[in-house]
Design goal:
The chain is of the alpha+beta class. The protein has one domain. It has helices spanning 9-15, 50-66, 84-97, 100-111, 120-130, 134-143, 149-154, 159-165, 184-194, 200-209, 213-217, 221-225; strands at 19-23, 31-36, 39-45, 71-74, 180-182. Strand 2 (31-36) and strand 3 (39-45) form a beta hairpin. Strands 4-2-3-1-5 form a 5-stranded mixed sheet, with helices on both faces. The relative contact order is 0.17. 50% of the residues lie in helices and 11% in strands.
């Protein structure tokens, strides 16, 4: 483990041959995962903040590794869901982005040998380093024993303003609203289409067969409405 280089969940997913679909959605869901035969797919709602997207990528990675379900729409980062599997996915994501050893190393770098409590500036610096949402970073620090519940609550307000005052980019705290597909399968299909080896119809069929229906039709209204049925 390189303690100076944060985890890039998108490279981890690509290395695991997991297709990634990034798309802004009208609903407040975080994302979803889909397993269909040999194909694995995660959908990320890019209308959520970039920090939340990174967290969601790790959350969905847990589901693809350990979940028995073939498909699930998720609200990541709640940490107190009635669904134990969702709670496990949240804590997995928090520890995956900020492993114990790396978190300890970065905290010690911040403290520089001084015996003092962590403050909001420390939390913001750490979440910038690990690419995590502010909420996830605070919970991670509390779980590791660096802050107490009262300190966590106190550090929740005016995060973007304070990040800007400290000289950080606001990108982590804002939605990206990007549309992107990252998939070796889709790339190969597109290459075949561009070379004239397959027709447009066959190209779309391949995407459908791979479980990338969203590329052709978008996330359906019905699937977005299912968001309302997810237990909190």
């Amino acid at each position: 483990m390189n303690l100076l280089v944060p985890v890039d969940i998108w490279k981890v997913l690509q290395a695991s041959e997991i297709s990634i679909l990034k798309k802004p959605l009208k609903s407040n869901i975080s994302g979803m995962f889909l397993k269909k035969g040999f194909v694995k797919l995660v959908l990320i709602n890019t209308s959520r903040t970039v920090g939340h997207q990174n967290f969601t990528g790790c959350h969905e990675y847990f589901h693809l590794l350990y979940d028995q379900d073939d498909k699930k729409i998720c609200r990541a980062g709640e940490f107190d869901s009635n669904d134990s599997n969702e709670r496990e996915a949240d804590y997995f994501a928090a520890y995956f982005l900020a492993p114990d050893e790396a978190l300890e190393f970065q905290v010690e770098r911040r403290l520089k040998g001084k015996r003092r409590a962590l403050n909001i500036a420390d939390a913001i610096a750490l979440e910038q380093m690990f690419g995590m949402s502010h909420q996830a970073m605070l919970i991670r620090l509390k779980e590791a024993g660096y802050i107490h519940a009262e300190e966590e609550e106190h550090m929740r307000s005016r995060v973007l303003t304070q990040a800007l005052q400290l000289g950080y980019s606001p990108d982590l705290y804002l939605p990206s609203n990007e549309n992107a597909i990252i998939s070796n399968y889709a790339e190969k299909a597109k290459e075949a289409l561009d070379k004239g080896l397959i027709s447009q119809g066959r190209y779309e069929e391949l995407l459908l067969e791979a479980g990338l229906e969203e590329l052709v039709f978008g996330l359906t209204e019905r699937e977005e409405e299912r968001d309302e049925t997810i237990p909190l």
